[in-house]
Amino acid sequence: MKAKYFIPLTLALGLSVQSCGDFLDTEPSAIYSEDLVWGSAANVEAFVLGKYNTVMSYYRDCPTSDVYFTTNMINCRAACPGNARGLIENTWDGASLNGRFGIIRACNMIIERCGTSTVLDETDKVKYVALGKLMRAMVYYDFARKTGKFIWVDKVLSSDDPDFNLPLTKSVEESYSYILKDLREAIPRLPANAKAGALSKNFGNAFLSEVCLTAAAYTGDAASLQNGKSLYQEAIDAVDAISGASLDPDYESIFNENGAYSSPEIILAQYWDKQYTTCSGTDQIKLIANVVNSNLEAMNCGPLFNVADIFECWLDWTPSQNLVDAYLVIDEADGKAKIWNETSQWLNNTQQISQSAAFGLIEHKDDDEVAAAYQVTTPGVSISDLMYNNRDARFDASILHDGSRFYNETVSMYNRGNMTRWSNPNYGNAHIPLTNYATRKSIYTNMTPRPFHNTATDYHMVITRYGRALLNKAEALLRLNKVTEAVATFNQTRTIHGQLPASTATTLAEAWADYKIERQVELFWESDYYWSLLRWGKYGYEANNGKAPSSTIDELNTPATFIEINRDRDAAFVGVVQFSNDERVFETRSYLYPIPLGLINANSAITNADQNPGWE
After folding, report:
1. How far apart are CA 163 and CA 168, in angstroms?
2. Nearest 5°: phi and psi at 373?
3. Torsions phi, psi of 361, nearest 5?
4. Rounded Cα distance, 350 and 18, in Å
5. C-alpha dihedral, 368 to 373 to 379 to 384, nearest 10°
6. Can you list the pairs that 603-610 forms with residues at least 24 positions away whose Cβ atoms lie under 8 Å?
7. Percentage of the chain lying above the pLDDT 90 cut
8. CA 486 to chain CA mean position, Å
9. Does residue 553 contact residue 586 with C-beta atoms inside 8 Å?
10. Which residues contact 405 (CB under 8 A, 6 or more apart)?
11. What does the alpha-carbon distance between residue 12 and residue 270 come to, in Å, rounded to a whole number?
12. What CA–CA distances, in Å, run from 516 to 191, 247, 263, 380?
């Protein structure tokens, strides 16, 4: 059982208030004086812990990565985001490049003040300086993966400094040199054992493995960044240095109340206590549908729920059929894992039909566009069973679908089922599953009396875990063309979490195909898929559908899709989500966000020549 990490809340919050009137923050404007902050070991600890929430927030922002850019999740109540349609302008500050100097200053204060502290013993001095460097690296890595370049500040600025208009780093390579230096210096000095929610040596190594992958992707594994070995090898070694963590065979529990403090897989998570937290203060409020019985009756939907208002949240985001396609199905004939519509049980019991034939069998909306449609050919066979039985075990742990059990209710997602896009008259602007899927992953199952906006609940969000680190290692091995080792590595999550037969890939192309599927389903709703797609696009070739490095990315140019199943469960079609989803486009300039024009205009040390390619 992991202990919770409690922070002296009032002090931590008070010390986090920073001045933001100047271009760069140079003076703290805090409730407590600096003498008080650095005057006792307890207050130093409170100050350091008080910064955790800020740096972790950059790594738990699923809506930005999963909703705004990819088709993993669809916004149910708005058009496809402009971010995903190539509508970003160079005025956009998507990285908040000019808005994080308060936390950067705090990290620099921790490094400087703790290093010279007279109230800390030598062990704590070393630990807090290392934590300051790790947090500074976390802040700057989020800049680097978004804008490539940033304003590097590695000291506490004061009003005596002559010029607060500092330049950007000259290149992506220079940016990563600072981040990697901080990490390499910090990791050996981080605590090996930490309470739940605290930064540790294991987290440092897991984080380093991902930084190395991105740095290598964007710089071609630049020699200047290597520490005596390839960045890919450094990523592998970092994962191998993780100690005491292991894969949790109960995948679902990692993300709900059952494994919050006990899962051996969690390396770092952020925790909220129900004394201060309600459902509306968590992602759950926007992942659970609003499908009350009164609306179901009005729309001729059903069956009605046993508890009339059991699901009355504000769902905004719903999984797509694109994502569901990635959860493999075990073929009943040969035992191999395949895409659902390529298994023998599917091919032997269904036939593909035209859009017009599908519309004759399946209720549809006027603007529906069919990508593929199917009809059962064997009497008595359920098309839902053919689609959803024998799936990757992470499917039921992550996605609500037709036939799921949730909060002791049976979920129906066929035509006018009880949790479908038919369940509210205000289609397209209601909190209902636009794709006829909903999310189970990261939903607590013990909210009492029901999931509702003011229901008190504990909660946690996983920042990183051992499964993710293993996939980082597998990716590095693929980049080193060590196919056998790579496949053996990602087979660990595939067989333990997915309960699928092991991949038998023997070529680099086969291994990349299986690895990409594995990472997509393993790390769904963990703020990963978009950043992985960018890395794979930078690698090119087997990692990006055979294309040259830095080419367009098919997965970001593909419309989102949904499922529609008829009431008899003997026919279904895959439809294209409307609301501008057919306008999705990824331009190669989007490998990096723009340097915002407002920053260029406000800072005399930055000019239009510093702009990222394609955003001029």
Report:
1. 14
2. -140, 150
3. -110, -25
4. 63
5. -70
6. 603/23, 603/151, 603/165, 603/166, 604/165, 605/163, 605/165, 605/166, 605/167, 605/168, 606/165, 606/167, 606/168, 610/149, 610/167, 610/168
7. 88
8. 22
9. yes
10. 411
11. 16
12. 33, 19, 25, 36
Measured CA to CA, the distance from residue 425 to residue 413 in angstroms comes to: 16
pLDDT tens-place string over residues 393-409: 999 999 999 999 999 99
Smallest CA-to-CA distance from 298 within 195, 427, 197 is with 427
pLDDT in tens, 79-94: 999 999 999 999 999 9
Contacts within 8 Å (CB) and 24+ apart, 532-538: 533/70, 534/145, 534/217, 534/591, 535/213, 535/214, 535/217, 535/475, 537/591, 538/217, 538/218, 538/591
C-alpha span between 473 and 489 (Å, rounded): 7
Chain centroid to CA 500: how far?
A: 23
Between the two ends of the chain, the Cα-to-Cα distance in Å is 53
Answering whether pTM is above 0.85, one says yes
CA distance 342 to 470: 29
- Bridge partners of residue 571, in order along the sequence: 375
- Whose tokens are 């859009």? That residue is 355
pLDDT reading at 64 higher than 90: no
Residue with tokens 């919770």: 4
SS3 (DSSP) at 410: strand
Q: How many CB atoms lie within 10 A of CB 607?
A: 11
| 282-302 burial code (b ≥16 CB/10 A, e <16) | bbbbbbbbbbbbebbeebebe
User: Mutual orientation of helices 201-219 and 231-240 as an angle, nearest 10°?
Assistant: 160
H-only helix segments in 453-608: 466-479, 483-496, 508-522, 529-539, 597-602
SS3 405: strand
pLDDT tens-digit map of 104-123: 999 999 999 999 999 999 99
Question: Encoding tokens for residue 142?
Answer: 């989020």
